[in-house]
């Protein structure tokens, strides 16, 4: 018996119309980010393991238990990227782009890999679309990034999203708020699970990401990162909030937002969609002013975001369809050559897909296939009035015509062969 292969757990195949929604989101990203002067960067899916340990952070869930890490044939430890910022920063340093011109604006789209428990909207291979801005330390950086993000989400048809913002301050203030949080929670942590106890001792701020009701309860009234900001970070945060208000970017303060990666400094933000059931985040981002330096580059402030493309596509309003569909039905094999020629002519004039029934199995079976395509296309939201069949058989050949059928009404008319292209120009 032959082996049946299955996609690896947590990965999936994308077919139309879903694959097209991904392509549309990426096209919108290219258009909108491009209009802000961001250029596309593509970095390898494979990086050295140490890059992620040093950037994402050894105590984070990602590094601790979610990375696909393995040794190559020479014994080097490699990891399938769990996120793209570390790779982009590595590439920027390695290629000398930190020398300018600044600011440097880059965006990316591509697969990321995390060994997580697969569940609705969560995969082991998933896609992110993101952008990184290097060399802008002032709150103007936040404003550009968040304005661009909202333009992008608007282009995809989202209307009433708001972004949650917070500040985690500098590495020193993060540390101070972590210590205070540990002290506060120590006596309240008896009902925490093993993993959350580990976080409490290693990196207590991580507990703000927990969904466990015991942890959430214990966190009520706890110290927050905002209580520990240094003066500069506080001023920066106030200015970000003021500028976002001026720019009419819908935001709300979320003092318990810290985000699951270690490299953030000052501003962090997240957009959550209520349409996604468990209040899952569509995207997250923040400022990471120390990361370039800590990965071996010069001091260079930076800010960016990563959008979960799978969740984005799931939550995005469905675009209204534009394309139409035309099926050319040769009656028998002797009509195929004419059908292929006509299809090429029509593809120039017809805005949607022009398909030839290559099996040339007679009008009856051909139309059965046509009706199936019609049902599928209507289900996808295509305009039913713009779905046609063109019939080519002995009768049509004799009269130098074709028969055009509208699938919505079943109405059929003869059109002279020489006028078919023009006939569709006004109707499709
Ligand atoms: P992060 O890189 O953890 O800040 O995640 C940024 C965004 O990527 C999240 O808001 C999610 O939308 C998305 N994301 C993260 N992990 C997954 C996953 N396992 N499956 C699908 N989307 C994910």
Short précis:
This protein is α+β, with helices and mostly antiparallel strands and 428 residues long. The chain has helices spanning 18-35, 49-55, 61-66, 85-94, 139-155, 171-186, 194-202, 213-219, 231-246, 291-294, 309-315, 336-349, 363-379, 394-399, 420-425, and strands spanning 39-40, 46-48, 68-71, 77-80, 104-113, 125-134, 163-167, 251-253, 267-272, 281-287, 302-308, 325-330, 353-356, 387-392, 401-406, 412-416. It contains 15 helices and 16 strands.
Tell me what you see in this structure:
With 428 residues, the chain is of the alpha+beta class. It is 37% helix and 21% strand. It is built from 15 helices and 16 strands. Helix 1 packs antiparallel against helix 5 and helix 5 runs parallel beside helix 9. The model has no long low-confidence stretch (mean pLDDT 92). The protein has two domains: 18-169 and 229-315, BirA Bifunctional Protein, domain 2 (2-Layer Sandwich); 323-422, 3-Layer(aba) Sandwich (Rossmann fold), CATH 3.40.50.800. It has helices spanning 18-35, 49-55, 61-66, 85-94, 139-155, 171-186, 194-202, 213-219, 231-246, 291-294, 309-315, 336-349, 363-379, 394-399, 420-425, and strands at residues 39-40, 46-48, 68-71, 77-80, 104-113, 125-134, 163-167, 251-253, 267-272, 281-287, 302-308, 325-330, 353-356, 387-392, 401-406, 412-416. It has an eight-stranded mixed sheet with strand order 1-5-6-11-10-9-7-8. A five-stranded mixed sheet has the order 13-12-14-15-16, sandwiched between helices. It binds adenosine monophosphate. The site of adenosine monophosphate has 16 residues, from strand 6, strand 10, strand 11 and helix 11.
């Amino acid at each position: 018996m032959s082996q049946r292969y299955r996609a690896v757990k947590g990965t999936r195949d994308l077919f139309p119309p879903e694959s097209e929604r991904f392509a549309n989101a990426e096209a919108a990203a290219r258009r909108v980010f491009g209009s802000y002067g961001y250029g596309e960067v593509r970095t390898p899916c494979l990086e050295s393991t140490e890059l992620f340990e040093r950037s994402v952070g050894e105590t984070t869930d990602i590094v601790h238990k979610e990375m696909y890490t393995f040794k190559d044939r020479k014994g080097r430890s490699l990891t399938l990227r769990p996120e793209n910022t570390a790779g982009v920063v590595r590439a920027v340093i390695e290629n000398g782009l930190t020398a300018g011109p600044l600011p440097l604006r880059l965006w990316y789209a591509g697969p990321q890999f995390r060994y997580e428990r697969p569940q609705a909207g969560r995969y082991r291979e998933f896609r992110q679309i993101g952008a990184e801005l290097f060399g802008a330390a002032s709150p103007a950086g936040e404003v550009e990034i968040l304005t661009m993000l909202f333009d992008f989400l608007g282009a995809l048809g989202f209307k009433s999203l708001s972004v949650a913002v917070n500040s985690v301050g500098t590495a020193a203030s993060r540390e101070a708020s972590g210590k205070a949080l540990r002290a506060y929670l120590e006596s309240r942590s008896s009902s925490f699970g093993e993993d959350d106890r580990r976080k409490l001792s290693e990196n207590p701020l991580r507990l703000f990401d927990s969904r466990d009701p015991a942890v959430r309860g214990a966190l009520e009234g706890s110290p927050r990162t905002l209580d520990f900001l240094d003066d500069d970070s506080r001023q920066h945060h106030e200015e970000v909030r003021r500028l976002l208000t001026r720019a009419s970017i819908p935001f709300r303060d979320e003092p318990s937002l810290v985000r699951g990666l270690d490299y953030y400094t000052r501003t962090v933000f997240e957009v959550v969609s209520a349409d996604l059931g468990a209040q899952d985040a569509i995207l997250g981002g923040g400022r990471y002013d120390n990361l370039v330096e800590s990965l071996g580059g010069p001091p260079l402030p930076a800010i960016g975001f990563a959008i979960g493309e799978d969740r984005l596509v799931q939550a995005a309003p469905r675009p209204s369809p534009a394309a139409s569909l035309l099926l050319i039905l040769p009656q028998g094999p002797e009509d195929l050559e004419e059908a292929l020629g006509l299809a090429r002519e029509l593809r120039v004039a017809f805005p949607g897909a022009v398909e030839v029934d290559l099996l040339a199995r007679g009008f009856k079976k051909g139309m059965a296939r046509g009706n199936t395509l019609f049902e599928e296309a209507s289900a996808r939201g295509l305009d039913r009035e713009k779905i046609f069949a063109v019939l080519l058989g002995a009768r049509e050949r004799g009269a130098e015509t074709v028969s055009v059928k509208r699938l919505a009404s079943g109405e059929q008319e003869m059109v002279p062969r020489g006028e078919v292209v023009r006939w569709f120009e006004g109707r499709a």
